[in-house]
């Protein structure tokens, strides 16, 4: 048996590219970037373009969210600087945002994971590959030991993403956790990965 050194193993993004080549397609690999001030315009464009799509799975954020987006974006950057969260965007080769992936730090090496991807990339493994990469970063970069994520009962796609990324059901999530809807909390122990 040959053991490949960890540094020589394919990353999720490299695996996705290899799969695309086998299918006769060539896709540019998106890049997971820490949220920055200069992302504001493209993140807002992503949110506005995806608003109706997201509202099918989670409660709509309302007009106030979009009207105060600049302030909210600045607040996330301040939280990230203060070390109370880590916020990422998945950026396509053309500079557009394909998804948002957020870690909201709690206590004792735990964080809540939240994410959303654009409709045109949903169902292509983008969310799964990025959540897996974020799990790696959560441990290696942020020193986290456990990630938790909640999803509604209706959001089967998100349940599949979490399961494929190594999360297991951990109990009920109530309306306060999910914008008025019922669901399930999922958890992943990062030390076991």
Structure, explained:
With 193 residues, the chain is of the alpha+beta class. The protein has a domain of 132 residues: 3-Layer(aba) Sandwich (Aminopeptidase), CATH 3.40.630.30. It has a 7-stranded mixed sheet with strand order 1-2-3-4-5-7-6, with helices on both faces. Strand 4, helix 5 and strand 5 form a beta-alpha-beta unit. The radius of gyration is 17 Å and the shape is globular. It starts with 11 loop residues before the first helix and ends with a strand.
Q: How are the elements arranged and paired?
A:
Layout (H helix, E strand, L loop, with lengths): L11 H11 L8 E4 L5 H16 L7 H5 L1 H14 L2 E7 L5 E9 L4 E8 L8 H15 L5 E7 L3 H9 L3 E6 L9 E7 L4
Parallel strand pairs: 4-5
Antiparallel strand pairs: 1-2, 2-3, 3-4, 5-7, 6-7
Number of helices: 6
> If classified by CATH, what would the architecture of one domain be?
3-Layer(aba) Sandwich
CATH topology of one domain: Aminopeptidase
The end-to-end span amounts to 21 Å
Tell me what portion of residues adopts beta-strand conformation. Answer: 15-25%
In CATH, what is the homologous superfamily of one domain?
Gcn5-related N-acetyltransferase (GNAT)
Shape: globular
**Portion in helices:** 25-40%
Quaternary structure type: single chain
Number of strands: 7
CA radius of gyration:
17 Å
């Amino acid at each position: 048996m040959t053991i490949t050194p960890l540094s020589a193993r394919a990353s999720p993004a490299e695996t996705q590219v290899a799969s695309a080549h086998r299918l006769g397609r060539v896709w540019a690999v998106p890049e997971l970037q820490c949220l920055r001030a200069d992302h504001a315009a493209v993140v807002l464009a992503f949110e506005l373009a995806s608003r109706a799509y997201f509202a099918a799975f989670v409660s709509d954020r309302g007009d106030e969210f979009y009207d105060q987006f600049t302030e909210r974006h600045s607040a996330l950057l301040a939280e990230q600087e203060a070390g109370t969260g880590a916020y990422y965007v998945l950026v396509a080769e053309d500079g557009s945002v394909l998804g948002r992936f957020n870690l909201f730090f709690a206590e004792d090496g735990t964080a809540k994971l939240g994410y959303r991807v654009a409709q045109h990339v949903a169902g292509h493994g983008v969310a799964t590959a990025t959540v897996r990469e974020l799990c790696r970063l959560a441990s290696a970069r942020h020193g986290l030991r456990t990630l938790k994520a909640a999803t509604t009962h209706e959001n089967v796609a998100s349940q599949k993403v979490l399961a494929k990324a190594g999360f297991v059901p951990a109990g009920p999530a109530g309306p306060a956790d999910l914008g008025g809807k019922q669901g399930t909390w999922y958890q992943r122990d990062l030390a076991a990965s």
